[in-house]
Amino acid sequence: MIDYQLLEYLESFLTDRRNALLKEVASKRTRHFTVVTEDVFQLHNTSAVMRTCDIFGIQDLHVVEEIKGKRIDKEIALGAQKWVDLHRYDKIDTCLLSLKEKGYRIIATTPHENSQMLEDFDITEKAAFIFGKESTGLSDKVMDQADGFLKIPMYGFTESLNISVSAAIILQDVVSKVKRSTINWQLNQEEQDEKRLDWMTKSIKSIDAILKKYAETKLQ
Q: Are 187 and 59 in contact (CB under 8 A)?
């Protein structure tokens, strides 16, 4: 349950403009689509994908670090770790199971010859777009369990794109389409309020002292 008294209390520490911005951004967030990176080797690529998720309103990023654990580079993420929910997994199987239980189609992004072109992708169902290692792509486990395969049309000699570029192209396309549709893609009101409260606790200066004072006033 959301502590709406706390939400209102924290709003008083922000300007009207800042509160309006948080409400606007929350209203444009979605969990209709989500993104997964599987054992991406270059740290800056995962961090860049996180920024891309924030830019296009994707609330959740799932990072699988089965081969070599890493941490998100905060400098490269440029603060996006405050706004995007990061879910980390040691095993790809755990990630895939969790996503399927939440109703997501597993979409492998790959230049696979039978892959669907981006412009033909069906946006009506929830989808998790999975991006793989820079050198070898997605694992056999992902390819075997995928509900669909998706590729970006390319017309030159180069056969692949940087992972963060691929994520940006795909998300820009599907998010633009879903926002023009009648699909219920937004977070519900409680989820939006929950995110605003979360964002406030991560961005307000001296938040620990403010929360302590709030707790003391509740006891009076």
A: yes
How far, in Å, CA of 88 to CA of 173, rounded? 26
pTM of the model: 0.92
Residue 57 reports pLDDT greater than 70:
yes
Could you tell me the pLDDT band of residue 65, with boundaries at 50, 70 and 90? confident
| 108 contacts: CB under 8 Å, gap ≥ 6 | 115, 130, 138, 142, 143, 146, 148, 149, 150
Residue 116, beta-bridge partner list? 150
Query: Which two structure tokens, joined as six digits, stand for 219?
Result: 């006891």
Does residue 214 belong to any structural domain of this protein? no
* pLDDT of the residue at 69: 62
Q: How many domains does the chain have?
A: 1
> Domain range for residue 81?
32-183
Residue 118 domain-assigned (yes or no): yes
